[in-house]
Amino acid sequence: MTDLVPLSDATLDRLPDGVVRPSYDRSALTPGIVHIGLGNFHRAHQAWYLHRLMQQGLALDWAILGAGVRSYDAAQRDRLAAQDYLTTLIELDPEGSSAEVVGSMIGYVPIEDGNGPLIAQMADPAIRIVAMTVTEGGYYLDPVTKDVDLSQPDLQHDIANPDAPRTVFGAIVAALKLRRAQGQGPFTCQSCDNLQGNGDILRQAVVSLARATDPELADWIDAEGAFPNSMVDCIVPATGDAERELVRELGIADEVPVSHETYRQWVIEDQFCAGRPEWERIGATLTDDVHVFEAMKIRILNGGHQIVSNPGELLSVNTIADCMTHPLIKGLFRKIAGEEISRHVEPVPGMTPANYVDLIDRRFSNPRIKDTVRRVAFDGSSRHSGFLIPVIRESRAAGQDVPGLALAEALWARMCAGTREDGTVIEANDPDWDALHQAAVEARETPKAWLEQRQFYGDLADDAGFAADFSRWLTLIWREGTEAALRSYLNA
């Protein structure tokens, strides 16, 4: 398409009809939030909620400054800066699509080794919330104990170099140290990642890192700071050529558009030490009991993603929606979620576990959301550890068999062998890929070799019943194929 309108503040009044744009004066916005890890999900979710408040003339002093702690974040900063930090959101409903330009982000902190600019920005008293989406694997957790592992090299670097940290947690500690020295109160630290008890985990990461260098600072952070738990939910695919073509079809030149489903949910523990926007005005749920909401979402949606993406990868299925058109993969999700996971999920106001399984079935099946199997299957070492293995552990402790979850783990093991059933290669798709691949190759002949990865499975490797189910499934997958294993489970 020719005559595309380049996205910027100067061109907002030239955007095509039907594209919702900011009605507020962006030049009057002032920052109140630093958000670290500014990817697609944040821009489609938290930034959208704030934008909708601003559309009502509210929260104009809570604008977002993006930030990152890795060198590769600099390219994203450059792309967003070129369009005044505006983002086109494209909502993909099965019945059609709509577009909205979000303007709640007004800057992006320069990215430098040692994170000096980020520390200085967070030390500014105008910043009252530091939020983050750094993915499940970004918290340096021990996969079995779920405690922050301070022996990790990056965290050891921050302990040795507290004024020039490498991690987001080290930068937060350094900024809070400055605020305390200047007589300022702390900011709220807000995790927006898919971790059960994400605020509690973030508190542990920050306080334990501070304690390693400055115990008095750690006590101050723990006593005066706030780390609300939260649950975030919206399916947001990675941006690729298809998404950029969608925004071009609208007549807009946007290098970093975001597509997303119609559904959003944000459940937040109302614990903030320096104020917050009135997110409840635009649909967020503020509550003292986030746990039941996050358990339902993490176990059924995020766990469900792993259940469908691993066989999808093995069978050369491209997207999650395509997986849900495959009767065996869809059946696998429905049976495991309905029979094995739901019994460890409590109802929440307005939603039973069974109804939630139906909701996730519909959301996964949206054909307009081109969410790739490869994206969803990425970092299975964090996601299986966080979403599925805890359910296995609880089930076995309750004396319950989990043949479906054992099959899900066997499918992950088979995927990590690195080939699809059509013979094509599965490229490395996990930070621990080399170790996973080696274990997967050994497990072809000796299935228990996979379970001996005790950093994931712990004493489940010694559970004879679970190990027998896992071994039976993995042997069947290698001998007769993925579809034969799925069919056997569904017909049992």
UniProtKB/TrEMBL annotation:
It holds the Pfam family Mannitol_dh. GO terms for molecular function: oxidoreductase activity, acting on the CH-OH group of donors, NAD or NADP as acceptor. Residues 289-472 form the Mannitol dehydrogenase C-terminal domain. This is Mannitol dehydrogenase family protein. Keywords: Oxidoreductase. Residues 32-280 form the Mannitol dehydrogenase N-terminal domain. InterPro entries: 6-PGluconate_DH-like_C_sf, 6PGD_dom2, Mannitol_DH, Mannitol_DH/Oxidoreductase, Mannitol_DH_C, Mannitol_DH_N, NAD(P)-bd_dom_sf. The keyword Kinase does not apply.
